[in-house]
TrEMBL record:
The keyword Nucleotide-binding applies. The gene is htpG. This is Molecular chaperone HtpG. Coiled coil: none annotated. It comes from the Bacteria. Keywords: ATP-binding, Chaperone, Nucleotide-binding. SUPFAM superfamilies: ATPase domain of HSP90 chaperone/DNA topoisomerase II/histidine kinase, Ribosomal protein S5 domain 2-like. Signal peptide: none annotated. The lineage of its organism: Bacteria, Pseudomonadati, Bacteroidota, Sphingobacteriia, Sphingobacteriales.
Length: 629
């Protein structure tokens, strides 16, 4: 071959500084790009052989990544289709920019680096982010082809001459520059290959590794082991998501889960195998992890691949926000990416994929619910937060989830939204026809209020999750006609679900006024408003409640519900004195001092039942109780 020198057809000497500047933070992707190119070349020779266009032996297609710390080189070698000198000039020298002049004009005007790298191809030239010289040694599969050698020092000039390769395929040799010395570290290369190449479809070898294996038994019959050197194969070439669901057992899915998340101690609850080829290509497996009852959006748990090449774990545009709680893999060649494959670009396919995944997840949950309701109920504590999050943030998901979202009551019985509505609509209805759902967010602290509600034959829901203050509003909108939600401790039970019949107050107007004055004096707090009311003799003598509306607004402010104004308001409690309780009559008839002591004790009992009596006040209450005994 006659030696040739030439100029790379980009008509500018600024291309390499542009590459280095705008992709510097992602400079590790050079290895992904070059290994991916080697995989493409390897798959092409297999395809040509299958089509009868290559009659030679395909042979071992394992790709080698070699590090020479002394020579400061990284070499990527494949046994793919190779290139002739003419092909090198065509594919390497003529960078696939859509017009070099246009590129530079846009480069001058663009403020956003992502815009630039999103418009123009990069591929092989990512090598110059880390290398000050790059060589290609290649021999084409074509009969009679001569080996070719290409070299470039990062300027726009190159040299091409006769190569030394004697077998089909390509070597790409990178002479690492001083600024990129980190890539001459074996563990760093291993880390990058583990990240990007773990599931590539062609074996990737990075040197050897030392392992121990059984070697018979010693004289005492104990097992012996020997140390052996084995090829360090980075990847699993046929991962679970590339197979048909019929080929996989539950154990296969679990094994793959632990391949993805080797440090996870928990097993996933269940999984969804995605497989669609129209109107876009998409495969993947999504796992439902056990979710703690706290709002922790664990991002970077779903990994995005394109033809088994890892792209990113930032998938918020492809996956709805509520599905970010899931784990697993999505693989699609139809997802539009910029040149570094680090940023998604706006595209109709992204929205279609987003909608498809939402529908698939909803369908799977509905299928599990219908097939095994008891098992679904047992998983509810782990998946309830996820489902409610989806219902609050995704209308299409909510439409389906209304059928399998469960409501749990204080007796640990589960109901669908429709079932619970049917259960309480004739019992928990107030005088204005409103269906009142009572709920607790703390069963132990609100036990006295729950007992009072159950004594009336009412059912009390448990809404104690981080999203439930918002979910209460959702139930009022979607739970059924004229539904209202009230926390069981937001008022006395007779006022939570007021009926037409009214109890008669056994106190005279003067006695009622006196009771109010005694309690005002005994309590002596600006945040407590005293009311004397007609309740059942079996009800508590004193109840301390916080208005449902104000409390809910304040709770929403705490969880970022846009109610900041309410969050800054002080708590204002209502103290309901049961005018029909014998203790209240006794307080009125006692001396001023004794009456005030009894009123203070009854009030503190009410605070204690709400968990509002703490510190010195609790100590003083205990002392007074002992003195009374």
């Amino acid at each position: 071959m006659q030696e040739e020198k030439g100029t790379i057809s980009i008509h500018t000497e600024n291309i390499f500084p542009v590459i280095k500047k705008f992709l510097y933070s992602d400079n590790e992707i050079f290895l992904r790009e070059l290994v991916s190119n080697a995989v493409d070349a390897s798959q092409k020779i297999k395809r040509l052989a299958s089509l009868g266009q290559y009659s030679g032996e395909v042979g071992d297609l394992t790709i080698d990544v070699k590090l020479d710390e002394t020579a400061k080189t990284i070499t990527i070698s494949d046994h793919g289709i190779g290139m002739t000198a003419e092909e090198i000039k065509k594919y390497i020298n003529q960078i696939a920019f859509s017009g070099a002049t246009e590129f530079m004009e846009k480069f001058k005007e663009a403020n956003d680096a992502n815009e630039i790298i999103g418009r123009f191809g990069l591929g092989f030239y990512s090598a110059f982010m880390v290398a000050d010289q790059v060589e290609i040694n290649s021999l084409s599969y074509q009969e009679g082809a001569e080996p070719a050698h290409w070299t470039c020092d990062g300027s726009t000039t190159y040299e091409i001459n006769e190569g030394t390769r004697t077998t089909r395929g390509t070597d790409v040799i990178l002479h690492i520059n001083e600024e990129s010395a980190e890539f001459l570290n074996k563990s760093r290369i291993q880390e990058i290959l583990n990240k990007y190449a773990k599931f590539l479809p062609v074996p990737i070898r990075f040197g050897t590794k030392t392992e121990s294996e059984p070697d018979g038994e010693d004289a005492d019959g104990k097992p012996k082991y020997k140390t052996v050197e084995k090829d360090n194969i980075i990847n699993i070439t046929n991962p679970a998501w590339t197979k048909a669901p019929s080929e996989l057992t539950d154990q296969d899915y679990l094994d793959f889960y632990h391949e993805l998340y080797p440090h996870s101690m928990d097993e996933p609850l269940f999984w969804i195998h995605l497989n669609v080829d129209y109107p876009f290509n998409l495969t993947g497996i999504l796992y439902f992890p056990k979710i703690k009852n706290e709002l922790e959006i664990q991002r970077n748990k779903i990994k995005l691949y394109s033809r088994q090449v890892f792209i990113t774990d930032e998938v918020k545009d492809i996956v709805p926000e509520f599905l970010m709680l899931l784990q697993g893999v999505i693989d699609s060649p139809d997802i539009p990416l910029n040149v570094s494959r680090s940023f998604l670009q706006a595209d109709s396919n992204v929205k279609k994929i987003n909608n498809y995944i939402t529908k698939k997840v909803a369908d799977k949950l509905q299928e599990i619910f219908k097939a095994d309701r008891k098992g679904f109920e047992e998983k509810w504590n782990d998946i309830g937060l996820f489902i409610k999050y989806g219902m609050l943030t995704d209308e299409k998901f909510a439409e389906k989830a209304n059928d399998f979202c469960l409501l749990k009551d204080v007796d640990a019985a589960y109901y669908t939204m429709k079932e619970f509505y049917e259960k309480v609509k004739d019992i928990q209805v107030d005088k204005d026809g409103n269906i009142v759902y009572l709920y607790t967010n703390d069963q132990s602290q609100q036990d006295s209020f729950i007992s009072g509600a159950k004594a009336k034959g009412y059912d009390v829901l448990v809404l104690d999750g981080p999203l439930d203050v918002h979910f209460a509003g959702y139930l009022e909108q979607k739970g059924g006609e004229k539904v209202q939600l009230k926390r069981v401790d937001s008022d006395v039970i007779e006022k939570l679900i007021p009926k037409d019949e009214q109890l008669t107050l056994n106190l005279s107007e003067e006695e009622s006024k006196k009771a109010s004055e005694i309690f005002d004096k005994a309590i002596s707090r600006n945040d407590m408003k005293v009311e004397v009311d007609a309740l059942s003799e079996s009800d508590l003598p004193v109840s301390v409640t916080l208005d449902e509306f104000m409390r809910r607004m304040k709770d929403m402010a705490k969880t970022g519900g846009g109610m900041g104004f309410y969050g800054n308001l002080p708590d204002n409690y209502k103290v309901t004195v049961n005018g029909n309780h014998p203790l209240v009559k006794r307080i009125i008839e006692s001396s001023d001092e004794d009456g005030e002591k009894l009123a203070k004790q009854a009030f503190d009992l009410a605070l204690l039942s709400r968990g509002l009596l703490t510190g010195p006040e609790l100590t003083a209450f205990v002392k007074r109780s002992v003195d009374l005994i």
